[in-house]
Amino acid sequence: MNPDQVVLWYLHGVPVNATVFFTWVVMVFLVVGSWLVTRRLSHGPEMGRWQNLLEVVVTGMRDQIRQVTRQDPGDYLPFVGTLFLFIAVSNLLAVVPGFHPPTGSLSTTAALAMAVFVAVPVFGVARQGLWAYLAQYLKPTPFMLPFNVIGELSRTLALAVRLYGNIMSGVVIGAILLGVAPFFFPVLMQLLGLLTGLIQAYIFAVLAMVYIASAATAHRRTVAKEGEAPAPRPSQGG
């Protein structure tokens, strides 16, 4: 069942459905968990298991961003890391009975895709400047402007539908198998769901990083190409 259809209560006449409620649950989980782990950080070789786990996650995300963008991950890590942790925790908490993952709602995936849609020009303008960023929509010719704009919109739509479709397909398949063999397949599907949930969070974060990096480096590649030294002309004297 789509979590948008599960209304839990009304807040001053406004329905609070499962998507909104469990999004708040994931946000509280991340904020409280981060506070508990980081309140007593150790700078020495001995550290707690949770700090060790957090450093492994942050270091892994920094390495992935550096490999994808070939740039310093410091500017991208807060945004891309938040996307990855939110999607991963939402999918992993699906093993908790009664929990409806908010990523199984098209409204949530659309909101995440819109965040990426806004972040792409923000990072692009910050790296290139306003006019240099807008100028890339006119390349290779000004006639490509509508096609470049449509490409940006379709990319955002595909990002939202892709995550929603993958999460909902797992939920639907699990419900079908639960009706066929209720004692065996649910355990198998839960384990498979954990794996696919992490993979979907990773893919969404990597695609967001690719879009942002392409917007931030397009002008740099163009300038580098225009600044190349002309090829030496062959000598006429042999």
Give a quick set of tags describing it.
2 strands, 238 residues, mainly alpha, two-stranded antiparallel sheet, 69% helix, disordered C terminus
Describe the structure.
With 238 residues, this protein is mainly alpha-helical. The chain contains 7 helices and 2 strands, in the order ββααααααα. It has helices spanning 18-38, 49-69, 77-92, 106-128, 130-135, 145-180, 185-226, and strands at residues 7-11, 14-17. Strands 1-2 form a two-stranded antiparallel sheet. α2 crosses α7, α3 packs antiparallel against α7 (185-226) and α4 (106-128) runs parallel beside α7. The longest helix has 42 residues, at 185-226. Mean pLDDT is 78; it is low at 229-238.
Residue share in β-strands: under 5%
C-alpha-based Rg, rounded: 23 Å
Which strand order spans the largest sheet, edge to edge or round the barrel? 1-2
Terminus-to-terminus distance: 79 Å
Order of helices and strands: EEHHHHHHH
Average predicted local confidence, pLDDT = 78
Parts with pLDDT < 50 across at least 5 consecutive residues: 229-238
Name the assembly state: single chain
Helix content: 55-70%
The helix/strand class is: mainly alpha
List the helices and strands and how they pair.
Layout: E1 7-11, E2 14-17, H1 18-38, H2 49-69, H3 77-92, H4 106-128, H5 130-135, H6 145-180, H7 185-226
Antiparallel strand pairs: 1-2
Give a summary of the structure in a few sentences.
This protein is mostly helical.
